[in-house]
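Q: Hi! First time doing this. I have a protein sequence and I read that you can turn it into a structure. Is that right? Here it is:
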Amino acid sequence: MSLYRREFLAAVAAAAALPGATLQQIPLGITTDEIDEDVVTAAGFLKRFGLGWAEVRNVWGKYNTAQPLEKIHEARSIFDAHKVRVSILGTAFFKIPLPADTPEGRAVLDNQWSLLNSAMERAKIFGTDKMRTFAFTYPDGATPDAKAYPRIYELVNEAARRAKVRGFRLAVENVGQSYVWSGKEAGELLKAVKEDNLGLTWDPNNAGTSGEKSFPDGWRNLDPARIFHMHLRDYRKAANGRYEWCAVGEGEFDNAGQLRALRQAGYRGSYTLETHWKSPRGKAHATETSLTALLRIINSI
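A: Yes, that's right. Below is the predicted 3D structure, encoded as structure tokens:
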């Protein structure tokens, strides 16, 4: 039994006791391809560590939306056998540069609408009504064009409308080099797009890499009722001035404060550990290390 596994089991035992939060109160999962792209391996890891939730992005070497439906059914069967439920389906919908309003740009958008349809098919198979989406990107080193936001909001609203007809919720993730990167930009999106099936995958660590103090400053711009899903990890600013991912507890993000604020706001949605940190011992080790630290934080709030 590895040192981290022993520490993890101790953290699980602590998290099951009062006064800290429990995994029933904070339904925690992991992005499965940050364990392994093999679904059996990832599901086995989740079961071994007592976690009942998964966020699905890549499976068996391809984005889930690029896998044929029979592979999605196979993955669902594996999760079911391990008593793991899918909290949210990861998609790359609208994680592209904003297309021009030209015939060529409209052809790009047609492909995105097809991607949304494919994602909804797969989400239904996995038994979740939530899909992680985005709000368009701009090049590294550039700044967002303020004039683009009305069209972005219009397109995000149209996506929400299409998803609502089929009973799905869209959880836009704030992500680096996106028009919705910081908490402030996420808050503006929520004000502009009123569809009640449109919310956020709030990633405060992504927001922190925009230069914003994402908690508590960015958080104050958000309506907690419209946060559908949470991403958790840790980051720090390196000596060269660039941001880098690190193991939970070794960076500068206040995970405990953010989790405490979510509970106080009545948040009842799902959580995903999306480690991103690269351990020299591999993805599963990186995830296990951060998971152990995150369980200690959960027990402390």
